[in-house]
Write a structure and sequence with these properties.
The chain is an alpha/beta fold and 508 residues long. The chain is 33% helix and 17% strand. The longest helix is centred in the last third of the chain and has 27 residues. The chain is globular, with a radius of gyration of 23 Å.
């Protein structure tokens, strides 16, 4: 099998920070050793959970790791998956994960948190997990295929598949990593029967995806979804138009056809030509990164699944930041300059069935344009789906908790933008951060660990966090001063839900 050439330089871990762990750990595929951090946390970095998805394995479900002999030293992270941001640590051979633990033995049965990173399913955004381990959990962070590597659908790929499908390779990587956790995490002192998956933005979209597929049943037991990224631009059907997007196969076929026509490759079958493309050429393919309703992993639009409350039934913690759309709107070059222009742009974007939304997401005066634009982008991209998960949890009679994060450490008087909460969750603030911010980070990390431990973030010593319910829709407002709110954005979100159900053809 021809492998892609790695385009990364391995980073060497400073000896002053790490010391070797002498006792190896036995995994199903072989023995490994790791490193011991100064805080007593053990780190196992760059552990393979699937075979390299290269050569003939490109655009196929992940395959088992090839066993090895001897002891492999896991003291440096594996390369990131191919992505749209420049990085020296990048390769098509990228299905690796990292484990942080402070367990004293394999019998400790610590709660396990599996982090699936965000980045639009296009690039990686994450932090190290040693703070979680120091707080009594086992933290696993996972790589997965992104961009066209993770989401390409094409008739030729579907034809060679035993399930007659293509795409969703990123989700299949999630499943493979979770299966690895079930098979191996007890060796790190983790409890395979107490696994919480969590992610932010596109990682929150991955929570959405995993909850909605029966293939993930039994692989996790709780979910934390931060700023869930699911909207009309990242859900498609495999073979048909879905009301917003053309078929995933059609878009993939068009992208491949354009690329091969430009390259003028003469020899080989279509699939051979597709797999002969370099990693850099695949990165140039213009295909949507979308969750695909394929009749295999998903037999209906996930919004239908959640509306029915028929997703995998586990406790859910879901939330968002109070200024999700701030950065996105400020980067827009063509913001509406008047109420009438905003109405016209919104009507063109939403199409028919949008009358109620137009009234709720169009400013009354020109002075309100920016605020309404931020609200719309926030709700459309992140907030609506975050609440959708919470409501689905209630419909499934599961314990459900909702937060709104409101801290902007750079500009404390401003709204908290997208991604602002992640460094608090991982307790990874800069050393210059204020005592107030350090306390908030410690508090949030403890909430997350306690939810992973019990399915409820509450414990003695922490501010009480009320459960979410249908009538009040109470949330915990996370800032340096903890408080509660209720019915946040309810009228707008109800209208957006109704609109989407109508466009997707969802029935009660």
């Amino acid at each position: 099998m021809k492998r892609s050439i790695l385009i990364f330089l391995l980073a060497v871990i400073p000896a002053s920070t790490y010391a070797s762990i002498e006792e190896p750990i036995q995994l199903q595929a072989g023995q490994i050793s790791g490193t011991l951090l100064d805080n007593g946390v053990q780190a196992f970095l760059g552990v393979p959970f699937a075979a390299p998805p290269v050569g003939d394995l490109r655009w196929r479900p992940p395959q088992p790791v090839v066993p090895w002999s001897g002891i492999r030293k896991m003291d440096r992270k594996g390369p990131d998956c191919m992505q749209g941001r420049n990085t020296n640590l990048m390769s098509e051979d990228c299905l690796y994960l990292n484990v942080w633990t402070k367990a004293e033995s394999s019998s400790d049965k610590l709660p396990v948190l599996v982090w699936i990173h965000g980045g639009g399913w296009r690039f990686k955004a994450t932090y190290d997990g040693d703070a979680f381990a120091a707080n009594g959990a086992v933290l696993v962070s996972v790589n997965y295929r992104m961009n066209a590597f993770g989401w390409m659908a094409h008739p030729a790929l579907s034809e060679e598949s035993e399930n007659n499908v293509s795409g969703n390779y990123g989700v299949l990587d999630h499943l493979a990593a979770l299966e690895w956790v079930q098979s191996n995490i007890e060796q790190f002192g983790g409890d395979k029967d107490n696994v919480t998956i969590f992610g932010e933005s596109a990682g929150g979209g991955s929570m959405y995806a995993l909850l909605a597929t029966p293939a993930a049943e039994g692989l996790f037991h709780k979910v934390i979804s931060e700023s869930t990224w699911i909207n009309t631009s990242n859900v498609s059907n495999l073979k048909t138009h879905n009301g917003f997007m053309q078929s995933a196969e059609g878009m993939g076929e068009g992208a491949i056809s354009s690329m091969l026509e430009e390259l003028d490759l003469e020899e080989g079958s279509l699939l051979e030509k597709m797999r002969s493309l370099t990693a850099e050429q695949v990165m140039q393919l213009r295909v949507p990164v979308s969750l695909i309703v394929d009749g295999w992993l998903y037999d209906k639009p996930p919004i239908q699944t959640f509306y029915e409350g028929s997703q995998i039934k586990v406790p859910i913690m879901s939330g968002y930041n109070n200024g999700e759309g701030l950065g996105y709107v400020m980067r827009q070059q063509n913001l509406p300059k008047s109420v009438s222009e905003q109405r016209d742009l919104r009507a063109a974007r939403l199409g028919d069935l949008s009358e109620e939304l137009l009234e709720l997401y169009v400013a009354e005066t020109n002075e309100d344009l920016l605020e309404v634009e931020i609200d719309y982008v926030s709700d459309d991209m992140f907030v609506r789906a975050s609440r959708e998960l919470a409501l689905a949890g209630l419909r499934a009679n599961q314990d459900t908790f909702v937060y709104v994060f409101g801290r902007n450490s750079q500009e404390p008087e401003n709204l908290a933008p997208h991604y602002a909460e992640v460094k608090y969750v991982f307790n990874k603030l800069e050393g210059s951060a204020s005592r107030e911010d350090q306390n908030l980070a410690s508090l949030m990390n403890s909430y997350w660990v306690q939810f992973a431990r019990t399915g409820n973030p509450n414990q003695p010593g922490l501010p009480t966090w009320p459960a979410f319910d249908l009538e009040t829709q109470t949330h915990q407002f996370l800032d340096v001063n903890i408080s509660q709110g209720s019915l946040d954005r309810k009228e707008r979100l109800d209208a957006m839900d109704s609109y989407l159900r109508a466009r997707y053809g969802v029935t009660p």
